[in-house]
Amino acid sequence: MDMQPKRRTNLERRIDIPLAFQLVLLLRTRKEALYLCTRSSLALRIAILCELSVEHVLELRNGVVKVIKAPERNISKDFAHKISEISLNPRDLLEYLNGERGRLAGVENLRKKIYSEMQSKGLIRVSKGVIFNKIRIQNADIWQNIYEKIIYEVQNSRISKESIILLTCLNYVNTMESLLLQCNESTASLIVQQMSEIKKRIQNKQYAPEDSLMYQFLSFMII
Fold it and tell me: What is the pTM of this model?
């Protein structure tokens, strides 16, 4: 990919929408079962928790996840409030926050909240059905920006924490199919290779101590 300096600079900038929203856009137009706690439900929760750790809203202290400052994004505030009331390790915390319905402890109806906010911002459109909802991308430009940023980072071996989170979530939900189908063969091969390196890093715990919480959350999607 031969890009002009201005274009390169744009791709190196952080995309200013939550990672959970970016994940929804990368999963593209699809049908999704109502109410069930699916792989996408778990991946969205982990994306939010990882983003909170990257933004230093959450820290791991003596093996317990703690809130150290208030989050700025609306979608993160439920998480911070729940976490501030308890003292749990990352695994128990994720179990505590999981589930779409019928759990007093969990962040309920997370997908509905995310889709509602994204719809109000003109990012997606949700067509409601009896068993399934259909989620359609409304803003293809933002999808393109997210996609190109990941591709640029992979091709230049400069993968950001945000892209590591998104790739791991996509790999867990649908083995990155929604991303790989948009790529040519050589780019798809690079992405698969990058994901393999991310897996090894997580499994072998080859990461900086300050990134430990993010990678511990991601480890629950490595199967």
Answer: 0.90
Rounded-to-integer distance, Cα 148 and Cα 120, Å:
25
Residue type, 170: L
- Other Cβ atoms within 10 Å of 35 Cβ, number: 13
Confidence band for 57, pLDDT divided at 50, 70 and 90: very high
Q: How far are the Cα atoms of 6, 142, 175, 199, 219 from residue 223, in angstroms, in the given order? A: 39, 30, 11, 9, 8
Range of the domain at 95: 5-219
Residues facing 59 on adjacent strands: 66
Domains identified in the chain, total number: 1
Q: What is the CATH number of the domain that holds 112?
A: 1.10.3630.10
Where do the DSSP E strands lie in the chain? 30-33, 58-61, 64-67, 124-127, 132-137
For the record, the structure tokens of 55 come out as 């933004």
